């Protein structure tokens, strides 16, 4: 068995280690020499490639392909995925594409599952929806099985919002803060492996812990955990003016993701089923984080 992970960063490495434990050889595609060195420190075979190049070097053959690289930050399509698929000389048996829950758009706080209509409100959601359709079309044309992971905010070691906490930037007051969803990086990697093994061709899976809270709740929990003073809170309209476009895009949508399909159909269970379990486990740098920081 051979696996290829395109965009083998933090989550990709966590997946690669799980694949290797199953006896599956893994090649991780990264863009920079420093990332390639990090993969080598973890015992993962690196492949340097620029997904924005006009011509991408031929990928090695793979039974399983995981496309974790994000689309560009502009446009309404994902040329990186298109280029990757065009470079494949042999179609993989199974293709797993990491998408986003932003493809659902704003659901006004409702619980939703994978049957929810796809109506992305922001450009990053539109790009991911285009990529989902591209992956599924490729699989149909080449006799492969393709599965989609719809992922919300990812947290874990090395991913806590230290910079924003230290800056003391205000949050949305609690009674106006929309619902947001999260998944621990290790649980996302485990879910990707389970979907590659057992996922149904053409199916999408919401990958979340199933315990939505709000962005305000998340940041204030992180502050308490790290011993940072509570962040000030202000009305939604005022807070939006101080936030980055990415944070604003999360706050302009409200939904509660059901993970029932992943749990009931594939038997997946998160190791960190809520923030109470996952946040303390995110405090210390683990081997993946140390590999990317070059720490001993």
Describe the structure.
There is one protein chain. This protein is α/β, with parallel strands linked by helices and 296 residues long. Helices cover 39% and strands 18% of the residues. The protein has 12 helices and 15 strands. The chain has a 7-stranded parallel β-sheet with strand order 3-2-1-4-5-7-12, with helices on both faces. It has a two-stranded parallel sheet with strand order 6-15. Strand 1, helix 1 and strand 2 form a beta-alpha-beta unit. Helix 2 runs antiparallel to helix 12 and helix 3 runs parallel beside helix 4 (123-142). The longest helix has 20 residues, at 123-142. It starts with a strand and ends with a helix.
Count of extended strands: 15
Cα separation of the termini: 31 Å
Q: How many helices in DSSP terms?
A: 12
Shape: globular
Please, what is the average pLDDT? 94
Which range best describes the helical content: under 10%, 10-25%, 25-40%, 40-55%, 55-70% or over 70%?
25-40%
Strand order of the largest sheet: 3-2-1-4-5-7-12
Low-pLDDT stretches: none
Radius of gyration (Å) = 19 Å
Largest sheet: 7 strands, parallel
Derived from helix and strand composition plus strand pairing, the structural class reads: alpha/beta
